[in-house]
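F.,

This is the one I mentioned.
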């Protein structure tokens, strides 16, 4: 009887290790997807804010007088940073939610 408990315990322990490895792989993939989506959003936001910022700094008298190159760069980089973190966060959360609903782990069948 004791041998059976030891064999069952080692099976559960192996299952838990496999489950931890699986969860770690899912977390890495989830964070990688978030980084990639955030980077894409940052590029789009940079372009979307750089064009009107640079155009207004050359055409609008108030902007020409008050927005030096440092201010223009700050406007563009702030928009890019915000886009990156917002999209990366939403992507990681959506991926984690999707993974949590994909079913139980493979080791739940003993």
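My design for it:
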């Amino acid at each position: 009887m004791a041998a059976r408990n030891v064999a069952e315990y080692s099976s559960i322990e192996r299952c838990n290790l496999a489950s931890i490895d699986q969860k770690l792989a899912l977390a890495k993939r989830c964070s990688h997807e978030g980084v990639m989506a955030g980077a894409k959003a940052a590029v789009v936001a940079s372009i979307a804010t750089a064009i009107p910022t640079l155009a207004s700094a050359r055409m609008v008298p108030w902007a020409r007088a008050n927005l030096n190159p440092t201010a223009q760069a700050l406007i563009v980089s702030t928009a890019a940073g915000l886009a990156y973190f917002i999209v990366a966060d939403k992507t990681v959360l959506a991926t984690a939610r999707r993974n949590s609903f994909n079913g139980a782990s493979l080791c739940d069948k003993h």
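Helices lie at 2-59, 61-66, 69-100.

Talk soon.
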